[in-house]
Structure formats: structure tokens, C-alpha cells
Design goal:
Shape: globular
Number of helices: 0
Structural class: mainly beta
Order of helices and strands: EEEEEEEEEEEEEEEEEEEE
Largest sheet: 13 strands, parallel
Length: 179
């Protein structure tokens, strides 16, 4: 599966009924589009509180997500459960949960921007062993948390902290007071 939206003017809107983009094709690639999964705003809230994500990459092993803008999400911005997924140059502009969640082994996150998220900017779950994050910028909730083993965090800019709950990951040359 290959999807090239041609630019951020191509928008996939999941609304309140589904994830904006279901990416379930092994070896596939999604690029150059905008995704949004928000419901009707609640009184005093920013979103509708639906259970849907902007991008759900549950079983796209060896897949690529490139230059995708997450306009807003009522849940996670990008949720990766598949193995060996590469996410490059994406912009998570707002999410009511985690900006990017990596749960598949050997995920690579390169040069992404995450901002205005309610939860952790980048969360690596216990299944995300061997994940690499480099050159990412995380603002407003700019933290990185990992429960996975043997992850590598190099050259990221955050306005929070990097927390390694596994004890076996490597952090090098990250700027934790960037903003």
C-alpha cells in the first residue's frame, strides 16, 4: 500500500466515528497528508473526547509514515504497535493524549515535531524495545518516557525531561531545556 496525499491540503478526518488513518499494510508507506480525529468540543474542553486516534499503525510492519501533519486528535496523535516502522518529518500539532506512542520493536522516529499534547510528548511502551529517536523537537508537554529496553535517544530537543524507566536505554546529546 502506498498513499501520497500530495501535500497537507489532503485531509483525512476521522471525526468521532473512527481513526483518521488506519495504516495496516506491511511494507506500506503513507506520506504528504493531514489527519484529524476530533469530536465536537465539550464545554470548556478542547476536543470531543472520542476514543479515536489520528493515525493507528497497528499492523504495518516495515511501514513508513513520512511528512504527515496531525492537526488534532481526541486520543493519541500517532500510535505505533507494529514492528520496524519509520516515522520521519511528521508534525503532531495537538493531541488530547500522547503525541507519538511507539510500542513495536525497532521503531525509528527521525526529525518529528510534537507540540500541544495533553499527555507525554513521546511514549515508548514496554513492547517498543530497540526504538531509536533522533532529531525530534517536543514542545509543550515536552517529555519522553520509555519502559522499553535498549532504546536510543540522541540529539532531541525537549522542554521537559527524558525518563528511562527500563535502565538499559542510552541518552546522548539531548537538549532538555530547549524552550
Amino acid at each position: 500500500c502506498f498513499h501520497d496525499g500530495g501535500g497537507e491540503g489532503t485531509k483525512h478526518d476521522g471525526g468521532v466515528a473512527r481513526n483518521a488513518l488506519e495504516f495496516n499494510s506491511d511494507g506500506g508507506r503513507v506520506q504528504n497528508c493531514t489527519v484529524d480525529s476530533t469530536g465536537i468540543a465539550s464545554v470548556g474542553g478542547s476536543g470531543g473526547g472520542s476514543a479515536y486516534k489520528a493515525i493507528n499503525a497497528a499492523s504495518c510492519h516495515n511501514g513508513w509514515i513520512v511528512n504527515v501533519k496531525v492537526e488534532d486528535s481526541d486520543q493519541l496523535g500517532i500510535d505505533i504497535a507494529a514492528n520496524d516502522v519509520v516515522v520521519i518529518g511528521c508534525d503532531v500539532r495537538a493531541a488530547d493524549g500522547v503525541g507519538i506512542q511507539a510500542g513495536g520493536i525497532n521503531t525509528r522516529l527521525i526529525g518529528n515535531r510534537i507540540r500541544n499534547v495533553t499527555g507525554v510528548g513521546l511514549n515508548v511502551t514496554s513492547g517498543g524495545d530497540g526504538m531509536t529517536a533522533t532529531g525530534n523537537i517536543i514542545q509543550q508537554s515536552g517529555t519522553i518516557d520509555t519502559d522499553a529496553e535498549a532504546c536510543l535517544f540522541v540529539g532531541n530537543k525537549v522542554d521537559g525531561s527524558i525518563t528511562d524507566n527500563s535502565g538499559s536505554s542510552i541518552e546522548a546529546n539531548n537538549e532538555e531545556t530547549a524552550f
